Amino acid sequence: MKHNSFSFFLIVLFSFQMLGQEKQFTRADTLRGSITPERAWWDVLRYDIQVKPSFKNKYTSGFNKITYKVVQENHPNLMQIDLQKPLVIDSIIYDKKQTLRFIREGNVYQVKTPSQSMGSEHEVKIYFSGKPHEAIRPPWDGGWTFTKDEKGRPWMTVTCQGLGASIWYPNKDHQSDEPDRGASLTMRVSKELMAVANGRLLDKTPHQDGTISYKWGVENPISNYTIIPYIGHYENFAEVYKGIQGDLDLNYWVLDYNLDKAKDYMPREVHNMLDAFEYWFGPYPFYEDGFKLVETSNTGMEHQSNISYGNYYAGGYRGNDGSGTGLGLTWDFIIIHESGHEWFGNNITTNDLADMYIHESFTNYSETLFMDYVYGEEAANDYNYGTRSGIQNKEPIIPSYGVNAKGSGDMYPKGGNMLHSIRHSIDDDKLFKNILTGLNMTFHNKTVDGIEIQRYISEKSGYDYSEVFAQYLTTTDIPILQLYVDAPNNKMFYRYTNCIEGFNLPLVLNGTQERIKIIPSTEWQSVPIQNRNQYLFTPWRIEHKYYLDVELVKQMEE
To answer: Which of 56, 71, 400, 493 is 20 to 30 A from 475, alpha carbon to alpha carbon?
Structure first.
């Protein structure tokens, strides 16, 4: 998918703003994280990947056939292909007949290509092999996992978000360019094993050497880091969910000895998830490819139409509740959170890793919306407020652009609290739901810049939230709402401090019958109050819905 370019001005401006982080980036970071001239001229149309992993030798070999389109008239006759050490490219075949030359610079290969005309389509078949990087602490550290199940049998998979899909196969490793025509993954494994991947099973081919090739594929565009193999002693059960767009095929691939447990547990959790998220976000984005959960040895990841699951068939996050309220133990965190990424992350994907808050903040907030759908608004407020214990405010959420930099982990709880604050300031859940469903319709199967999502929310809500986003995403300061009660004159004075100039989050204060709306700024303002509505300004009531600190002051200072 051809990416939407950042405006040059915004990149330069933000780069200067981020210099204070004192983060030093290398040429390798730039090659990995930017649209280089050797990347810009070609648009990925399709990936067809084949891999043969050896559990015994921890060795992989295979190829990726990349179909692409030339999108620039004048361009270098070099193509950047990414493949991380210790894997190596063995050979590259162009349009089924010509062997291409290449040189390596770290984890980047520069491939010499023939002259190609604007609009023409071609393919390169890239053969690779080697002992791949093994994940040390999956899914947070990427790479192959060669482990054993409880019966001592081979169990293999890959995790690679952030580290990049080039950790295990050659590709254009930039999330701005998804294959428009989908992708396939063929895994050749021992006949005792089952291999599962994204989308639907397209082909099963036995070989004379005692191996079987399983070919899976998706019709939709897909992020390269979410194309993932799962190989083990899997059993399957399936059902059909009656969704907004009709019948949605649900498949569950679990280790054979967990089949009965999974049948009793997984469908209920998945149905609850789909009920809530199709309500809030609109239709599941990939009806054509179906939805599946696949059991894995790590906690789980948001692999498109292919969610990995390792949460022990229990509520919470492996027995923990990040909100500290106990509410998070009543539903399976991995099924809810990772599936939420099907809408934000897989359907809507950011061009640059620096904008990953679009993936993680919205998906973190999907947990609150799930709570709201199942338990109601007050439980959702309690859960969201509880997640603030995980906010550190040591670094801004948005890092530098163009260098494959991932922002602060605060993009999860802080981003979710930012969105909760915006929702309450809109004070119209029908409108807020329309914004969320509209995002998933407008940007369906697209890659975006974060600013596009911000502008959409401002446009559809009828209020400019740009300074609100800037406050929470680019600073580590928690805004303070100062309140001064002028009792003799029955007025409440208010202003924001500890914030950027221009911060203007509206506050809607609702009671049983009373309602007050204010739009504080960094200047003192006032609103008339009465005994019956003064309670609306109770600090706890405000802080419970808005990510602010409230301070009662005895006098107004300039």
So the answer is: 493
